[in-house]
Amino acid sequence: FPSHDKVQEQLNAFKKLTIFFKFTLTLYHTIIQNKPQVVLIYDTIALLSYRIVSSLITYKPFLWYHNHDVTETELLKPYTLSSFAYKNEQKFLQNVNLFTLPTLQRLPFFNMHLFNGKCIEVPNFPSQKFYNSFLIKKQKNTQQIKLIFQGRISEGHGLEEIIPLLGKKINGKTLCLELKGIAEESYKQHLISLAELQNNRAHLHFHP
Prior knowledge:
Structural class: alpha/beta
Shape: globular
Strand order of the largest sheet: 1-2-3-4
Helix content: 25-40%
Strand content: 15-25%
Number of helices: 7
Radius of gyration: 20 Å
Largest sheet: 4 strands, parallel
Distance between the termini: 20 Å
Protein backbone atom coordinates (compact mmCIF):
# COMPACT_ATOMS: atom_id res chain seq x y z
CA PHE A 1 0.00 0.00 0.00
CA PRO A 2 2.03 3.02 -1.26
CA SER A 3 1.40 5.67 1.39
CA HIS A 4 3.37 8.36 -0.45
CA ASP A 5 2.69 7.47 -4.05
CA LYS A 6 1.68 10.39 -6.31
CA VAL A 7 -1.49 8.66 -7.54
CA GLN A 8 -2.56 7.61 -4.04
CA GLU A 9 -2.10 11.15 -2.70
CA GLN A 10 -4.54 12.50 -5.31
CA LEU A 11 -7.35 10.07 -4.41
CA ASN A 12 -10.37 11.21 -2.41
CA ALA A 13 -10.98 9.92 1.12
CA PHE A 14 -13.58 7.32 0.11
CA LYS A 15 -11.33 5.83 -2.57
CA LYS A 16 -8.39 5.69 -0.14
CA LEU A 17 -10.50 3.86 2.45
CA THR A 18 -11.78 1.43 -0.20
CA ILE A 19 -8.23 0.59 -1.27
CA PHE A 20 -7.15 0.30 2.37
CA PHE A 21 -9.87 -2.17 3.33
CA LYS A 22 -9.33 -4.23 0.17
CA PHE A 23 -5.64 -4.40 0.99
CA THR A 24 -6.40 -5.37 4.60
CA LEU A 25 -8.76 -8.13 3.47
CA THR A 26 -6.15 -9.45 1.03
CA LEU A 27 -3.52 -9.41 3.78
CA TYR A 28 -5.88 -11.30 6.10
CA HIS A 29 -6.59 -14.06 3.57
CA THR A 30 -2.91 -14.32 2.61
CA ILE A 31 -1.81 -14.88 6.21
CA ILE A 32 -4.66 -17.30 6.97
CA GLN A 33 -4.01 -19.39 3.85
CA ASN A 34 -0.21 -19.39 3.81
CA LYS A 35 0.69 -19.05 7.50
CA PRO A 36 4.01 -17.33 6.75
CA GLN A 37 6.79 -17.48 9.30
CA VAL A 38 7.70 -13.84 8.62
CA VAL A 39 5.58 -10.83 7.58
CA LEU A 40 7.46 -7.80 6.23
CA ILE A 41 5.67 -4.44 6.46
CA TYR A 42 7.01 -1.38 4.62
CA ASP A 43 4.99 1.66 5.71
CA THR A 44 2.65 3.07 8.33
CA ILE A 45 -0.60 2.34 6.48
CA ALA A 46 0.35 -1.29 5.86
CA LEU A 47 1.24 -1.55 9.55
CA LEU A 48 -2.25 -0.32 10.44
CA SER A 49 -3.68 -3.03 8.17
CA TYR A 50 -1.59 -5.64 9.92
CA ARG A 51 -2.77 -4.47 13.34
CA ILE A 52 -6.38 -5.01 12.25
CA VAL A 53 -5.53 -8.45 10.84
CA SER A 54 -3.56 -9.49 13.94
CA SER A 55 -6.59 -8.81 16.11
CA LEU A 56 -8.59 -11.33 14.06
CA ILE A 57 -6.13 -14.23 13.98
CA THR A 58 -4.48 -16.41 16.60
CA TYR A 59 -1.49 -17.20 14.39
CA LYS A 60 1.27 -14.64 15.05
CA PRO A 61 4.13 -14.66 12.53
CA PHE A 62 7.47 -12.95 13.13
CA LEU A 63 6.83 -9.26 12.35
CA TRP A 64 9.50 -7.26 10.50
CA TYR A 65 8.73 -3.57 10.07
CA HIS A 66 10.95 -1.50 7.78
CA ASN A 67 10.30 2.23 7.88
CA HIS A 68 11.82 3.87 4.80
CA ASP A 69 10.55 7.41 5.39
CA VAL A 70 9.84 9.46 8.52
CA THR A 71 6.25 10.77 8.72
CA GLU A 72 6.05 14.55 8.43
CA THR A 73 3.61 15.11 11.28
CA GLU A 74 3.14 18.80 10.48
CA LEU A 75 1.55 17.80 7.17
CA LEU A 76 -0.90 15.31 8.70
CA LYS A 77 -4.55 16.30 8.68
CA PRO A 78 -6.71 15.15 11.64
CA TYR A 79 -9.02 12.15 11.20
CA THR A 80 -7.34 10.99 7.99
CA LEU A 81 -6.04 7.52 7.18
CA SER A 82 -2.45 8.78 7.36
CA SER A 83 -2.96 10.35 10.80
CA PHE A 84 -4.50 7.14 12.22
CA ALA A 85 -1.66 5.13 10.66
CA TYR A 86 0.94 7.38 12.30
CA LYS A 87 -0.69 7.08 15.75
CA ASN A 88 -0.89 3.32 15.33
CA GLU A 89 2.81 3.16 14.45
CA GLN A 90 3.73 4.90 17.71
CA LYS A 91 1.64 2.45 19.77
CA PHE A 92 2.00 -0.81 17.84
CA LEU A 93 5.78 -0.65 17.48
CA GLN A 94 6.10 -2.61 20.73
CA ASN A 95 4.64 -5.65 18.91
CA VAL A 96 7.29 -5.57 16.19
CA ASN A 97 10.00 -8.25 16.38
CA LEU A 98 12.48 -6.64 13.98
CA PHE A 99 12.54 -2.89 13.26
CA THR A 100 14.81 -1.65 10.46
CA LEU A 101 15.62 1.88 9.31
CA PRO A 102 17.80 3.40 6.56
CA THR A 103 19.74 5.13 9.35
CA LEU A 104 19.60 4.81 13.13
CA GLN A 105 19.74 8.62 13.35
CA ARG A 106 15.96 8.52 12.76
CA LEU A 107 15.24 6.62 15.98
CA PRO A 108 14.26 9.79 17.94
CA PHE A 109 11.20 10.08 15.65
CA PHE A 110 9.79 6.78 16.97
CA ASN A 111 8.33 5.65 20.28
CA MET A 112 11.00 3.17 21.38
CA HIS A 113 10.16 3.18 25.11
CA LEU A 114 8.23 -0.11 25.07
CA PHE A 115 10.03 -1.69 22.11
CA ASN A 116 11.61 -5.03 23.04
CA GLY A 117 12.56 -6.32 19.60
CA LYS A 118 15.73 -5.97 17.58
CA CYS A 119 16.57 -2.75 15.72
CA ILE A 120 19.16 -2.60 12.93
CA GLU A 121 20.15 -0.27 10.09
CA VAL A 122 19.35 -1.22 6.47
CA PRO A 123 20.70 1.54 4.17
CA ASN A 124 18.67 2.84 1.22
CA PHE A 125 21.07 1.83 -1.52
CA PRO A 126 21.23 -1.26 -3.75
CA SER A 127 23.73 -4.09 -3.44
CA GLN A 128 26.50 -3.65 -6.03
CA LYS A 129 27.25 -7.37 -5.85
CA PHE A 130 23.70 -8.19 -7.02
CA TYR A 131 23.08 -5.40 -9.56
CA ASN A 132 26.46 -5.24 -11.27
CA SER A 133 25.58 -8.26 -13.42
CA PHE A 134 22.61 -6.33 -14.90
CA LEU A 135 24.39 -3.04 -15.55
CA ILE A 136 25.64 -1.93 -18.92
CA LYS A 137 28.78 0.07 -18.51
CA LYS A 138 28.40 3.64 -19.73
CA GLN A 139 30.98 6.31 -20.17
CA LYS A 140 30.94 8.39 -17.03
CA ASN A 141 31.28 12.13 -16.74
CA THR A 142 34.61 12.13 -14.94
CA GLN A 143 34.29 15.85 -14.21
CA GLN A 144 31.43 15.47 -11.73
CA ILE A 145 30.68 13.86 -8.39
CA LYS A 146 26.93 13.29 -8.14
CA LEU A 147 25.19 13.05 -4.76
CA ILE A 148 21.90 11.22 -5.37
CA PHE A 149 18.94 11.51 -2.99
CA GLN A 150 15.89 9.32 -3.73
CA GLY A 151 12.71 9.55 -1.69
CA ARG A 152 10.40 12.24 -0.38
CA ILE A 153 12.21 15.55 -0.83
CA SER A 154 11.56 17.43 2.40
CA GLU A 155 13.14 18.91 5.51
CA GLY A 156 15.17 16.76 7.83
CA HIS A 157 17.36 15.08 5.21
CA GLY A 158 20.26 17.53 5.30
CA LEU A 159 19.61 18.89 1.80
CA GLU A 160 19.87 22.53 2.87
CA GLU A 161 23.27 21.82 4.40
CA ILE A 162 24.56 20.23 1.19
CA ILE A 163 23.55 23.06 -1.16
CA PRO A 164 26.32 25.50 -0.09
CA LEU A 165 28.85 22.82 -1.04
CA LEU A 166 27.59 22.38 -4.59
CA GLY A 167 29.97 23.44 -7.31
CA LYS A 168 32.96 22.87 -5.06
CA LYS A 169 35.88 20.90 -6.44
CA ILE A 170 36.84 17.57 -4.89
CA ASN A 171 40.00 16.14 -6.42
CA GLY A 172 39.29 18.27 -9.47
CA LYS A 173 35.67 17.13 -9.84
CA THR A 174 32.56 19.31 -9.41
CA LEU A 175 30.02 18.36 -6.73
CA CYS A 176 26.37 18.10 -7.91
CA LEU A 177 23.12 17.14 -6.17
CA GLU A 178 20.52 14.96 -7.93
CA LEU A 179 17.08 14.81 -6.26
CA LYS A 180 14.56 12.19 -7.35
CA GLY A 181 11.15 11.95 -5.70
CA ILE A 182 8.06 13.85 -4.58
CA ALA A 183 8.50 17.41 -3.30
CA GLU A 184 6.06 20.09 -2.20
CA GLU A 185 6.39 22.97 -4.67
CA SER A 186 7.11 25.42 -1.84
CA TYR A 187 9.99 23.30 -0.55
CA LYS A 188 11.37 22.78 -4.05
CA GLN A 189 11.41 26.54 -4.60
CA HIS A 190 13.07 26.96 -1.20
CA LEU A 191 15.96 24.72 -2.29
CA ILE A 192 16.23 26.50 -5.62
CA SER A 193 16.37 29.88 -3.84
CA LEU A 194 19.15 28.60 -1.57
CA ALA A 195 21.10 27.39 -4.59
CA GLU A 196 20.63 30.71 -6.40
CA LEU A 197 21.89 32.60 -3.35
CA GLN A 198 25.00 30.43 -3.42
CA ASN A 199 25.38 30.89 -7.20
CA ASN A 200 25.32 27.13 -7.76
CA ARG A 201 21.82 26.55 -9.20
CA ALA A 202 23.38 24.77 -12.20
CA HIS A 203 24.55 21.99 -9.89
CA LEU A 204 21.13 21.25 -8.36
CA HIS A 205 18.89 18.92 -10.40
CA PHE A 206 15.35 17.58 -9.81
CA HIS A 207 14.07 14.38 -11.39
CA PRO A 208 10.44 13.15 -11.41
